[in-house]
Task: inverse folding
């Protein structure tokens, strides 16, 4: 169990800088996810924490002690690799006990620790098997077992579920989360799957191009994305974005598109005439009768039923708009749409930054 | 599915190719075997594919204390033959062990360690394969004389290692390059150092590559003629390849004896390959990843 402090961390490959001064404080026992598109630097960051990549600038400290020059084997960190990296010539028990054997732990103690971890992971019947005789999910568990058996200070996970099929992924997701809760070990989890990040993490770090876009609790990122990148990254289907300009009509502030479609803005601290991007999540839009007061009229191109809800692909004027409608939708070519209260996010169009309602902006965690 | 084997012309073509290949590679060995079993007098007659009369007298000359040669009892060649066989085994074995050991560690450095000029150095080492052995024979001879290594196992082994190491290095480098680095990283995070990881994780998984290197090196060393001809003048280190042609005497070429010795000389490498081939199985990496 440990804290991990990352201070102005930089990674360069030759002249090319891929991580640009990241600051991050990870609390003891926290489950934190690093998420971003491929090439955003999330795996590089993880490998720097592990000691598998050199640090070009800044520091990484574990429990307050700087580990920049410390070899991976002396960092007391365990890592679960994307491809599991099981030793194919060793049995499951030997795979799991490998790190303890290296530490000259007496044999009875090793087998006790291995058995304990195997019980926890449901691997007891497979201890004598070789990795090739295991299924994907079992191999994944062995990789986990190898990590937990020696009780490291920090767990690192590098997209551990991406090689599993969808059903197993959901199951392992819950197992990893429950295991981490039980062990209370600080965990850093790299993924490109926002659902994994949302469901497992205490906090999520969203990375983009080697920079941190936002750090926060999963629902904070969902409710209050700090910028357009986060807004479109979290949530599925992605948030609808519509360019507009703010207009005032008496007391009421509107966002008006270039086609004259108006959406009322509540409590947003934005000056009249500002070029903004309006963001509305598909699930915060509801289909309604066109005649409903305040309803926006959309043309419908396509309806995708998923069973418990339908994704309606439409257009508001020229702007594409996706509506998630709970329940089923009859084929139609046009409909009215109502925006849920508080469902409108406003972003400055030039900087991409969120413009907050004044009352809510205090205490928000940006960056 | 239609494969070339499923049509008649395809089958005939394949069969022809196989027969040609077998005749090409086994034909000389068969001829040698037939010759070694033919009585000396018949060797002077019309050659035939099958010996009219099988005789073990050539083998008796190799193994017996004395034997009959052209009607006279003569000393058998067993003392020379056994010494040369031992020399062949020792020099080839030593060369194989040393070469594979150096290649196992050296190639790893060429793949996983970063140092200036690494790739250039590797190319330079491999490029020595292109140098004909004859061009370095005289300087090498002078060198060996000054080092007092002529007619010693050390000298012969050193020469073999320098000759066969580049190929083994090359082979092992590609073996290591094909290995996922995450296995080594996992071992480092588990607390293993570089050497421990190499010996206990990487080498066991590289066994097929190591065995292939060993087979290549052993066969190369076993078949060497030029090097021992120059550097092994006496039976202290003289191998079979050099001894067998010496069965040619001033007034008699003992074809039967030479071929019998040749047949016996084939046996050790064949046994070695048969034995090691079992470990050359693919699929050792199965289960490591995914």
Result:
């Amino acid at each position: 169990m440990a804290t991990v402090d990352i201070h102005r961390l930089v990674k360069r490959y030759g002249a090319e800088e891929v991580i640009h001064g990241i600051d991050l404080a990870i609390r003891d026992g926290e489950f934190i996810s690093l998420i971003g598109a491929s090439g955003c630097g999330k795996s590089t960051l993880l490998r720097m924490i592990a000691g598998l990549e050199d640090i070009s600038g800044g520091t990484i400290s574990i429990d307050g002690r700087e580990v920049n020059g410390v070899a991976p084997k002396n960092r007391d960190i365990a890592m679960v690799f994307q491809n599991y990296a099981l030793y194919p010539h060793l049995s499951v028990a030997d795979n799991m006990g490998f790190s303890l054997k290296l530490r000259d732990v007496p044999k009875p103690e090793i087998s006790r620790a291995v058995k304990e971890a195997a019980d926890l992971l449901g691997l007891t019947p497979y201890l004598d098997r070789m990795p090739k005789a295991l299924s994907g999910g079992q191999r994944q568990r062995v990789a986990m077992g190898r990590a937990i058996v020696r009780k490291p200070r920090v767990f690192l996970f590098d997209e551990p579920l991406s090689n599993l099929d969808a059903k197993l992924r959901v199951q392992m997701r819950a197992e990893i989360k429950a295991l981490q809760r039980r062990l209370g070990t600080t965990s850093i989890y790299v993924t490109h799957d926002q659902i994994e990040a949302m469901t497992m993490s205490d906090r999520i770090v969203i990375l983009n191009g080697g920079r941190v876009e936002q750090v926060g609790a999963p629902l904070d990122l969902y409710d209050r994305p700090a910028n357009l990148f986060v807004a479109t990254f979290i949530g599925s289907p992605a948030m609808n974005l519509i360019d507009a300009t703010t207009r005032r009509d008496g007391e009421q502030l509107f966002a008006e598109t270039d086609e004259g479609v108006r959406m009322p803005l509540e409590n947003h601290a934005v000056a009249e005439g500002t070029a903004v991007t309006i963001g509305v999540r598909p699930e915060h839009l509801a289909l309604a009768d066109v005649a409903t007061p305040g309803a926006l009229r959309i043309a419908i191109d396509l309806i995708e039923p998923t069973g418990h809800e339908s994704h309606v692909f439409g257009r508001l004027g020229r702007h594409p708009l996706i509506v998630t409608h709970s329940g089923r939708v009859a084929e139609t070519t046009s409909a009215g749409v109502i925006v849920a209260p508080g469902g409108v996010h406003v972003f400055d169009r030039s900087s991409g930054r969120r413009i907050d309602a004044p009352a809510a902006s205090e205490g928000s965690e940006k960056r | 599915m239609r494969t070339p084997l499923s049509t008649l012309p395809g089958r005939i073509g394949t069969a022809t190719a196989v027969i040609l290949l077998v005749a090409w590679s086994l034909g000389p060995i068969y001829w040698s075997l037939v010759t070694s079993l033919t009585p000396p007098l018949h060797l002077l007659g019309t050659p035939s594919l099958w010996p009219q009369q099988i005789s073990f007298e050539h083998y008796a000359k190799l193994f017996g204390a004395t034997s009959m040669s052209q009607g006279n009892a003569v000393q058998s060649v067993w003392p020379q033959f056994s010494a040369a066989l031992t020399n062949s085994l020792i020099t080839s074995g030593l060369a194989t062990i040393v070469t594979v050991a150096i290649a196992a560690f050296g190639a790893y450095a060429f793949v996983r360690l970063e140092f200036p000029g690494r790739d250039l150095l590797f190319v330079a080492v491999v490029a020595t394969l292109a140098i004909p052995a004859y061009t370095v024979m005289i300087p090498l001879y002078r060198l060996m004389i000054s080092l007092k290594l002529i007619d010693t196992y050390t000298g012969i082994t050193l020469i073999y290692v320098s000759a066969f190491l580049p190929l083994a290095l090359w082979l092992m480098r590609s073996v290591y390059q094909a290995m996922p680095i995450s296995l080594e990283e996992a071992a480092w995070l588990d607390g293993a150092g570089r050497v421990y990881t190499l010996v206990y994780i990487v080498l066991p998984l590289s066994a097929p590559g190591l065995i292939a290197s060993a087979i290549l090196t052993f066969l190369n060393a076993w078949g060497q003629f030029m090097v021992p001809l120059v550097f092994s003048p006496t039976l202290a280190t003289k191998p079979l390849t050099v001894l067998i042609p010496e069965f040619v005497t001033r007034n008699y070429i003992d074809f039967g004896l030479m071929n019998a010795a040749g047949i016996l000389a084939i046996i050790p490498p064949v046994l070695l390959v048969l034995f090691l081939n079992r470990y050359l199985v693919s699929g050792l990496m199965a289960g490591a990843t995914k």
The interface with chain A takes residues 180, 182-183, 185-193, 196, 201, 204-205, 283-290 of chain B (CB under 8 Å). The beta strands of chain B are 66-69, 72-75. The domain at 79-277 of chain B is CATH 1.10.3720.10 (MetI-like fold). The mean pLDDT of chain B is 87.
